[in-house]
Amino acid sequence: MLTTMSKEITEKRIQTEKPFVVYKKVSKSFGDLKVLREIDFSVYPGEKVAIIGPSGSGKTTLIRLLMTLEEPTSGVIEIDGVPLWHKEVKGKLIKADEKHLHKMRGQIGMVFQQFNLFPHMTVLRNCTEAQVKVLGVNRKDAEDRAKEMLEKVGLGTKLDNYPSQLSGGQQQRVAIARALVMRPKVMLFDEPTSALDPELVGEVLDVIREIAAEGDMAMILVTHEMEFAKDVADRIVFTDGGKIIEEGSPKEVFENPKSERLQSFLRRMRK
Amino acid sequence: MISINTYLELIPSLLDGAKVTIQVLLWSLIFTFIIAFIAGLGKLSKWMVIRGISTVYIEIFRGTSLLVQLFWIYFVLPLFGMELSAMTAGVIAMSLCYGAYASEIVRGAILSIPKGQYEAAIALNMTPFQRMKNIILPQAFKIMLPGFGNISIELIKGTALVSLITLSDLTYQALTLRNTHVGLTTEIFLSLLILYFFIALPLILFVRWMERRVQVGRA
């Protein structure tokens, strides 16, 4: 199976390479509410990590910090050894400006729970706009790349449609293509199937599986789909109460959960 | 046929007035919407000073009467050495007053765009300027249109006030005519009504056409 093959490649990279993303004692509070408590967490190049856990456990916030949608309250996140939210000035870390964030963010891509397609643009335009405006690709090349990715997610015939003319599953697949054309090194998925009607979940998960099998892009998936996480991920991270309670290979986590909290979470999910 | 002849006598000077009204209107429309975008975006700025300046401007010009603003700009500013022609003063006062109202339409429309749109634009690494220009404003513009239509029509009616700072606009001409043809009061004011409506009509149709145009792609 493709996934198994890619998993072996990833395993090799984890043993030989440095982690690409590193969280160091990262905390996040919204007012008095502590959402993340001193999280230490790493992702290796090409690694597929699934984050599972009850609602409100901080898993979405964890990836929103990496996409720079939310600023950490304390701690440092590094991408390829460079602090994301900070700049080093004379050996001291100071808060980064928009310019620094812009430079760093290009390495990260994200797929949202609510798709967030641009409703005033066609499917094709959704997938070319940032290539042209942000990456400076010429329109012709941008369109070729967009078409290739839209083909891959099975929407090669919907180029001129507007998002409102598509089903939720189709919209989410466009959103995946839109993120892919930017060639991120790490792709974040924030509960990509939670807003979908049950019969549309499969088509989106299949597309994500296929991308995961290609291997070279790291992925962090926040998901409630346990079977899918087991299939796709090299590593499962279980969060609860703003902390990482347990992590390990899908086999370890699902077949032999150590902590009581993970055991009871898995019991509830199976019901 | 007394009435046809009377109207023929009235129309030329009314049309002269209509020209002035249309001139004030077009200039005011342009500046109103420029000001509306500047003040509307200013009020959403992340810098407090810009937010403060925008707020003060909006509240002063929304909170006082257009007539008083006209008087200030035309009669009071010259006392401080700023002499303006009646046309300039009229356009400035109208634009500042209606710009303040329209800025709230701009602000409201921008705020109504879902947070997810900003986040998607950030995730694609667009700069703050690109997010606003390519993602938020095109969507917000559609929401602004009905409000802009209203403001434009209000503006046409507001132009009647410039007659009070000596501009010979449509209303001014009608009032002058009435002084010389007191017996024709009904005819004069009926013509006035119709002429104002015909000035407003293309504007109403234009806004309606724009609204239909931007519906593309929306559910």
Automatic annotation (TrEMBL), chain A:
Gene Ontology CC entries for this record: plasma membrane
Gene Ontology MF terms in the entry: ABC-type amino acid transporter activity; ATP binding; ATP hydrolysis activity
Organism whose genome encodes this protein: Neobacillus thermocopriae
Protein family (similarity comment): Belongs to the ABC transporter superfamily.
Protein name: Ectoine/hydroxyectoine ABC transporter ATP-binding protein EhuA
Bilayer disposition of the protein: Peripheral membrane protein
KW Nucleotidyltransferase (keyword) present: no
Keywords: Amino-acid transport, ATP-binding, Cell membrane, Membrane, Nucleotide-binding, Transport
SUPFAM superfamilies, per database record: P-loop containing nucleoside triphosphate hydrolases
InterPro entries: AAA+_ATPase, ABC_ATPase_HisP-typ, ABC_transporter-like_ATP-bd, ABC_transporter-like_CS, Ectoine_EhuA, MetN_ABC_transporter-like, P-loop_NTPase
Entries under Pfam families matching the protein: ABC_tran
UniProt subcellular location: Cell membrane
ABC transporter domain span: 21-266
PANTHER family, sorted: AMINO ACID IMPORT ATP-BINDING PROTEIN, GLUTAMATE_ASPARTATE IMPORT ATP-BINDING PROTEIN GLTL
